[in-house]
Design brief:
This protein is α/β, with parallel strands linked by helices and 168 residues long. It has six helices and five strands. Helix 3 packs antiparallel against helix 4. The longest helix is centred in the middle third of the chain and has 14 residues.
C-alpha cells in the first residue's frame, strides 16, 4: 500500500515545512499547483525553483503534476464563493461545491492516476503539495480521497507549524 500525505505552504517557514516532511518520512513531493509561485516575501521559499532546490538538498524527489492543477476558471469559481462568504484564500475552511464538482469532472475524472501511483515510493511517503494550510480547503484533498478509494493509499494530512511538532 502506498502512503500519501498532503501538505500546504501557508502558515509555515521553509524550515518547518522541511521538518514536517522529514518527520512524516516523505521522499517525494508532488506539486499540484497550476502556478508554482506564492505571493508574499514570507513564502518566497515555496516558489518553484527555490522549493525544488530545497527539496533536492533534503534528498526529496520533486515532481510537478500540472495535469492535477485546477484551471484558472475553476479557481475563479472558488474565489467567487470566498468573496460571497467573506473569507480569504489563506483563511478558507472548505471548498465551494461548484469548484469541487467542476474539479472532479473536468480534471480528476480525466487523469489516469496509475502512472503517478506507480512512480511513488514504496517504503516511504509521497506528499501532494499546494498552498492552503488545511487540506479540506484545497483540491489536494480531492486527489487524496481518490488515491485512497481507487488505489487503497493510506492518507495523512500534514500541517507544518513553526515551533511545534507537526500534526500527523
Amino acid at each position: 500500500m502506498r502512503r500519501v500525505a498532503t501538505i500546504g505552504v501557508y502558515g509555515a517557514s521553509a524550515d518547518a515545512f522541511l521538518a514536517c516532511l522529514r518527520e512524516a518520512e516523505v521522499e517525494q513531493v508532488l506539486d499540484v499547483r497550476q502556478r508554482r509561485g506564492v505571493r508574499g516575501a514570507e513564502y518566497a521559499w515555496a516558489n518553484a525553483a527555490r522549493l525544488a532546490q530545497a527539496l533536492y538538498d533534503a534528498h526529496i524527489d520533486y515532481r510537478h503534476h500540472l495535469e492535477l492543477a485546477p484551471t484558472t476558471e475553476l479557481r475563479q469559481l472558488q474565489y467567487a464563493e470566498d468573496d460571497r462568504k467573506g473569507v480569504g484564500k489563506r483563511s478558507r475552511a472548505e471548498l465551494a461545491p461548484a469548484y469541487r464538482d467542476g474539479y472532479l469532472a473536468q480534471i480528476l475524472d480525466r487523469v489516469d492516476l496509475t502512472p503517478i501511483v506507480e512512480a511513488m515510493p514504496r517504503k516511504a511517503r509521497a506528499a501532494l503539495l499546494c498552498v492552503e494550510r488545511d487540506a479540506e480547503a484545497c483540491h489536494r484533498s480531492l486527489i487524496a480521497a481518490r488515491l485512497a478509494s481507487e488505489f487503497g493509499c493510506e492518507i495523512v494530512h500534514l500541517r507544518p507549524s513553526d515551533g511545534e511538532k507537526p500534526d500527523l
